[in-house]
Amino acid sequence: MAGLLWAQDQPATPKYEDLSATPEQRAADLVAHMTLAEKVSQMQNVAVAIPRLGIPAYDWWNEALHGVARAGLATVFPQAIGLAATWDTGLEHTIADTISTEARAKYNDAIAHNNHGRYHGLTFWSPNINIFRDPRWGRGQETFGEDPYLTSQIAVAFIKGMQGDDPRYFKTIATSKHFAVHSGPETTRHQFDARVSRADLLDTFFPAFRATVEDGHVDSVMCAYNSVDGTPACASRILLQTHLRRTWNFSGYVVSDCGAIEDVYSGHKYKSSLSAASAAAVKAGTDLSCGTEYSTLVDAVRQKLISEKDIDRSVIRLFTARFRLGMFDPPDSVPFSKIGMDEVESPAHQQLALQAAEESMVLLKNDDQTLPLSGRPSLAVIGPAADDPDALLANYNGIPSHIITPLQGIRSRFSSDRVQYALGSLYTDQSAALIPASVLIPQGGSNNLRGLFAEYFHSDNFTGKPRLGRIEPEGYFRWDMRDPEVLAAVPRDTFSLRWAATLRVPASGDYALGVKRLNAEGSTGTDSARLYVDDRLLVDDSGRKHDLVGGMTAMMHLEAGRGYRLRVEYRQDGGAAGLELVWKPPADVSLAEAVRATKSSDATLLFVGLNSNLEGEESKLDIPGFAGGDRTNIHLPFPQEKLVGALLDTGKPIIVVLINGSALAVEAAKLRAAAILEAWYPGQEGGTAIAKVIGGDYNPGGRLPVTFYRSVEQLPPFEDYSMKNRTYRYFMGGPLYPFGYGLSYSDFHYSALSLAGGTVSVHVTNTSSRDGDEVVQLYQTDADAPHPELRGFQRIHLKAGETQTVTFPRPTLKGNRPAKGPFLVSVGGGQPGPWAEGHYLQIALPEKRAQ
Q1: Three-state DSSP class for 215?
Q2: Is the pLDDT of residue 691 over 60?
Q3: Backbone φ, ψ for residue 585 (5° rounding)
């Protein structure tokens, strides 16, 4: 009897601790134990701990666009636009699974060290599946291109790879963003109202989001900054309830873009107070705010702007996600809890990054089989992107242990003593470049050595003896690259670094010399750098905000043949990211050097394009050709246009390699260059991949995921969201290069296109003597919509002489236009048209389109 009474006196185990209950049941029970203030505290991306309920702090903000981002060392794959150029969903799934493995490793390590901070969680705000409707949008590089079907297929593969296939637990949670109708301009995104037709909404802006919900089962969606037809996206019941939850049956949670709830009030003027804006967003279906706006919800409940029941619904969704991630369960029950840091940037992951970079390469031109290069040619490697490690990483990136630049890759693949390098030009007149090793003699070294002498101190004021002294090839330091010698010598939080060298310039002129600090995302640390020339302080960058494009520089006249003593002193306190030693040489000096190198070489590899300081998310950048992260034209910046023209005028074979995240109007190169290779922002192994393509060790097979236009004059105004005359599906002009286009070193022949039952099949034969990849593309063309629309694709590998039969499900378009008759199905290595050079077949299907 006493035992029974004792048992009755014991409190029952709460349901939220019951592992046999569903995540939804556990979440509902846990939320029922919370006060209103505690509930609201969980609806902001920085969710505070609630110790009495055993809830640890958690930051929902994590990034994984093309590798785990902003959390230190990680494998960096090609930028999203480059991954789309692979047209390989199997590869994309493998990459996403790899990213989620590294994410789990970082999360496990963070929890073991009681780190609950940003960028170390499991809820990732990727992928960006907005349609890249206009090449001027700076964030288009983050997307999978301009086509709804290609975007859908790549995105679903990414989401499935990120979230995993465990029946009980998510490996990580992916987020489809930004819902909806979001693709610039960056400068007005907090106030912009996107006006769209129903047809464009359903045929262009919605399909990828619908596919990620219905086919990918994504558990998170991010609502956009902009309004759609007068209503802010994060407060739109039509978007978040009618379409997302009711029509598509989305059951996860919605997070706002950062600061978007504030925009409902102050940007769009949709509500008269922040509390009213917060209430409207939650009632519409935005469960989580990136920001602190939802702290006003307690007051909103008191004002009867929203009910506590509405609050409960959102918080239950959020905790359902955390339970499905296993955050409250014993580690032994969560299959991903033992993934260790040895998985991060493992050799296998580095090899996968190389494969991804190889597959992303798109050969746009190859006159007279200029490529691949054979034998031992003398090469000039020229251009601002030739030896720029930062450009390869794009934006929303992690930091790898090494970055292989194109110059490094070419020197490794070919005879380094037969490779000349010249900068040629800066990206823009305002840009700066790393000072190359060729003009630096390490302090205390002989004249035949090149680079800088580096000393690392175990303090932030250069006291004591240096813990490490060595020669480094250039002034480029990133702590997160995890150099083992530096790690063993000094701590991240507090150290100092001195670079010393003699500078000898090739020609007299006015040079800008300076430093560029690399700030770590979310770091509370401080750093500073000073540059001395002949012991005179030239640049003092002590915590002041400097130009992200050019760093902080000062002009100085330098004489050829004279040696100038350079000294850089860098102090680090609290864990910032790193430093670069940069310059702006005289434009005429750089150009003349490039022309000389071109004339004295068998062939020139010219690396031109953009970088993520020029195109990207909202910025204060305002220089010719660029505005706030977007572009105002799609030509190369003037210094690079001049460089291209000067080298083409030499009459020597010029192979142009594009490093960029969006379409470039390279008309002169198309007309006069021997070859053009589109390399995108190819990630940490980019230089190796480029060299393998140039040298014939890899046969390129990528295809364009966007149209390359001749100029912005072919396009409607950037702010016009109508799809008329945009993307290959609606464009009325002649493109520079069409969507789906790409060449190979192999030749492929298509035959026996047929329709049988529910499938379309075709024979594809590699008629060349070289193995290669072909991207087989299926397009449908309707009588009422004469432009082709992609409805299927497969990337296949064919050995020389091999034939494969490729099959697709019988296409049935669903849309808003009434069917007017039969439609054509075209299958080939690109979209049907004159650029396909007959390498496609067509068959008419008489059945009308399903409605």
Answers
A1: coil
A2: yes
A3: -70, 160
Q: Which residues pair with 55 in a beta bridge?
A: 50
Q: Is 535 a catalytic residue?
A: no
Q: Which helix (DSSP H) or strand (DSSP E) does residue 297 occupy?
A: helix 297-302
Please determine, for residue 1, whether its predicted confidence score (pLDDT) is greater than 50. no
DSSP 48-108: PPBGGGTB--EE--BB-SSS-BSSSB---PPPHHHHHHTT-HHHHHHHHHHHHHHHHHHHH
Answer yes or no: are the C-beta atoms of 555 and 539 closer than 8 Å.
Answer: no
Answer whether 480's CB lies under 8 Å from 492's CB.
no
pTM of the complete model: 0.96
- Calculate the dihedral angle through the C-alpha atoms of 704, 710, 711, 712, rounding to the nearest 10 degrees: -50
Could you count the other beta carbons within 10 Å of the beta carbon of residue 633?
15
Long-range contact list for 335-338, CB < 8 A, 24+ apart? 335/166, 335/169, 336/104, 336/108, 336/164, 336/166, 336/169, 336/171, 337/104, 337/108, 338/108
Give per-residue pLDDT as tens, 152-167: 999 999 999 999 999 9
**Which residue matches tokens 């219905």?**
214
Query: CB of 641 within 8 A of CB of 610?
Result: no
User: From the candidates 345, 455, 615, 678, which is the catalytic residue?
Assistant: 615
What integer pLDDT is reported at residue 11 of this predicted model? 59
The helix (H) or strand (E) run that includes residue 503 is strand 494-503
| Contact by Cβ (8 Å): 386, 434 | no
The yes-or-no answer on residue 455 being catalytic is no
Q: Which two tokens stand for residue 295?
A: 């702290």
Which residue out of 134, 146, 203, 257 is catalytically annotated? 257
pLDDT band at 521 (very low <50, low <70, confident <90, very high): low
Q: Is 819 exposed, middle or buried (0-12, 13-18, 19+ CB in 10 A)?
A: middle
